[in-house]
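User: Good morning. I'm curious how shikimate-3-phosphate would be positioned relative to this chain. Could you predict the structure with it bound?
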Amino acid sequence: MTQLWPAPTAPGAVRATVPVPGSKSITNRALVLAALADGPSTLSAPLRSRDTELMAAALRSLGTTVSDGPDGSWLVEPGALRGPAEVDCGLAGTVMRFVPPVAALAEGSITFDGDPRARERPLGTVLDALRALGVEVGGDALPFELRGAGGVPGGEVTIDASASSQFVSGLLLSAARFDRGVVVRHRGGPVPSLPHIDMTVAMLRDAGVEVDAEQPERWQVSPGPIRALDLAVEPDLSNATPFLAAAAVTGGTVTVPGWPARTTQAGDAIRDILARMGAEVRRTDAGLTVTGPAALTGIDIDLHEVGELTPTVAALAALAEGGSRLRGVAHLRGHETDRLAALERELTGLGGAVRQTEDGLVVEPRELTGGTWHSYADHRMATAGAILGLRVPGVRVEDIATTAKTIPDFPGMWAAMLAAEDAAVGSGARG
Ligand SMILES: O=C(O)C1=C[C@@H](OP(=O)(O)O)[C@@H](O)[C@H](O)C1
Ligand SMILES: C=C(OP(=O)(O)O)C(=O)O
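Assistant: Good morning! Here's the predicted structure, ligand included:
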């Protein structure tokens, strides 16, 4: 049985400055672009966590050199892409959806597999799209084999990306290296996480790639070189949210340094969410500072664009005074776990009043009690349990180590936050 992590109860209002490691989404896009670029790239302050190490390993196995530079940076030297290779996707959506189009440019047999849950995550759309673009690939889920021919004809393809924005991002990231580039059209229900596609487009353009994204639900990448990158990776704003939530639920103050003034990261939406729930939110040159109110108010919000914040927002909602409704996130059923089912089950297990709807959750305020919080190998479920534990004594989070998917040392960062010199012991926290 996996060890249980006793989630620390806040000794008072949490007051801390918490530097947060680099963005998973930016790091993994940058690694892919750097592997396909026309020269060596430098990524400074990249995220070094399971998802990004898996991406680096996948690209290495295809012929790219990814080595350590000074101060934790990554140096990426593109090499001739070739198999045979075995790609371990772990549970990383970015690896399972971004790497197959890269592998299609290689020569040889490349097999893909991942964690048991990764075999259930939606992937067929990407593999169908590659077949339509002239790639020989079997299967419609992990594990599968792709036989690279050393190039991809490319062209036009219509996909249903309503299950994941990553289907679109994955095709666009490699498409400048396809003979004819790509035109991707979406047909189906609304595409989730559109800011993540905007991030893909922005990073491609920064690398000198011509992208036409003028029409809704249509993206065109022209064939051409990808310029080498010299990129400083922003802090991961979604990973910052549990720490900001710590201020919000304890009436404390937490600053995350280096919060970008402008960003394509979807996690920036947390500023508005926390403000709507009653927190004071200020962005200055020092970073983003959140000060929690005496009591959080509930929220009715469509999280379609920023689904990855749902576990944090559900934890906040469960500790708020009014009821909340989280909408637009049916696609979370295909994330690391079925997040709607997991949040309903685990919050209910602590005495919460939570029920799933067709596309989200309804959360009513209740006094919560301690108990085991299961993580389902989902890093954001684990961090949601930690947030609850600040106010609810006796929460034990199963498999806290799963946070290493996107944060290298979450328990250490959490402990440091609670032990910070500026922590005001004995005041402000409720519960
Ligand atoms: O492209 C990306 O970096 C991501 C896109 C989103 O995926 P979905 O569109 O599948 O929600 C997001 O939830 C995930 O954490 C990261
Ligand atoms: C959905 C997420 O991850 P992935 O990139 O594996 O899809 C997430 O980090 O919340």
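The pocket of phosphoenolpyruvate (ligand 2) is lined by residues 92-94, 308, 335, 380, 406 (CB under 6 Å). The longest strand covers residues 107-113.
Let me know if you'd like a different ligand tried.
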